[in-house]
Amino acid sequence: MVVGIREVAEHAGVSTATVSFYLNKPDKVRPETAERVRVAIETLGYVRNDAARQLKAGKSRMLALIGFDVTDPFFAAVARGIRAAATEHDLYVVLADSDSQVDLETEYLHLFEEQRVRGLLLAPVADPSPYLVEGKARVPIVLLDYSADEGTLPAVAIDGRAGGKMAAEHLLQCGRRRLAFVGGPSEIHQVAERLEGFRGAAAGVANATVELIETTERNARQGREIGRRLADRPESERPDGIFAVNDLVAVGLLQALVVERGLAVPDAISVVGYNDALADEYSPLELTTLHPPQAELGATAVELLLEAEASPAPPPRTVVFMPELIVRESSVPRS
Length: 335
Hints:
Layout: H1 5-12, H2 16-24, H3 31-44, H4 50-57, E1 62-67, H5 73-88, E2 92-97, H6 102-114, E3 119-122, H7 130-133, E4 141-144, E5 155-158, H8 160-173, E6 178-183, H9 189-203, E7 209-214, H10 220-231, E8 241-244, H11 247-260, E9 270-274, E10 288-291, H12 294-310, E11 318-321, E12 324-326
Parallel strand pairs: 1-2, 1-3, 3-4, 4-5, 5-11, 6-7, 6-8, 8-9, 9-10
Antiparallel strand pairs: 10-12
Helix pairs in contact: 1-2, 1-3, 5-12, 8-9, 10-11
């Protein structure tokens, strides 16, 4: 039998109105009465029907976060920032992984709309669909770690082009000229931005070249595979400066280059990552990386979502954060 408010009221010897008041404003119920209701709830195993409450109130307390790769530590850090900000507004967050699949992303969008979530935080696989851009979505949406040239939706983003530029400039300052970008797929917006900034900074330097080594995934396993292939090349054909699309790929590269093949990093090859989201024990060397303010990004996304809900008419606002280069031992030659 499903236990409802009526059964709780009967067990506690109070009215259904008192039980409802206890559930919504427990501090307003006399302590002895509140204790009887609490005991009744625990004894009967009552579970609140939040869907019914949502229909009555007209608002959900649930936010949906859709990411294209939630295994990336960057998304975990951003999600924690979103959860912390949501908690301050008495909201909850449910997470979905589109696995870099546009069709799955679209399915999740429609599913969460049907569930009447309070709002959607979306890290899109590619450019947002016309359905979103044309404002057909029935709930407020904020784009996460994405910024379009013409803002049609609220968005928060890390300046990936600036991050790629910083990585290239640092490697060039270290005397590196045979540069490589390791990551992919290049159709992913964040990957394309970082590559564009990296190539742009190297283009103006004499004798500097950039090799694109594209991966299908952005994890340590792919980094190790690429590292082994690079180690097998003649020394003159290897890159001497590598920018990995994220720290997972960078750590995989270091594991193959340093631990498996014994190559001299950073003396012969400098390596730079992106995200600053991995603990040191995963890497044989302390990793030079680009640090984006993940928690602040997540908190700002929630702020924009609530702004869009309260005032949907004003032009969408885009907030862009700059990454910070953190120099460690994987990039600066000791000699």
